[in-house]
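REQUEST ID: PR-0412
SUBMITTED BY: lab tech R.K.
PRIORITY: routine
TASK: structure prediction, single protein chain
INPUT:
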Amino acid sequence: MTDFELKREVESELNWDPEVKSAAAIGVSVKDGIVTLRGHVDSFIEKLAAENAVTHVRGVKAVVNELEVRILKSSERTDEDLARAAVEAIAWLTEVPEDRIKIKVENGIITLFGTVYWNYQKQSAENAVRGLMGVKGVINLIEVRPSADKALVKAKIEEALKRNAELDAKRITVETVGSKVILRGTVRSWAERKEAERVAWEAPGVTEVDNQITVAMAA
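STATUS: complete
OUTPUT:
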């Protein structure tokens, strides 16, 4: 598939996805299978939805998301109001110890700090705040406390990859260096690459995933 053909496919997918309401305001450029999104959307959630839509298009090797979030006047909030809403959202999470998460808000961008034991706790905290009205972006600086048993981490990731119906585990290798996981191999799509990374993050004590998996050229 040529870059021009891929550009048309990406544009069609953005227009098709109901979560991407500002598709007409999104510019798409493609070079060597790498898609860059420019323009503006109405919310941070929509920015993420646009990126997610692109990853499901066959032939996409990577996505550069340069979309600007322009909050509608009716949805604007002060940083103080946004911080209060973020604190309340985190407090509702039963899986995340409330006292472990600290929050800072500046110009509509929420920054999360703290320490947790699992990456899903870190991700849950981010998910809880990124959909709040008025959010322009989220910076997640929460740290995951590493596990001491790297052999166990490696085994759990390999088992999870084999169970996943969306992945060909035979084409993916797993290496652990301390609490860091390195993934290598070749997959059929950018979405499959992301799925392998998601699986790796679910292991206990993983603090970093170095995803070196490459996406095979679409026929």
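NOTES: The domain at 75-144 is CATH 3.30.1340.30 (Histidine-containing Protein; Chain: A;).
REVIEWED BY: pending
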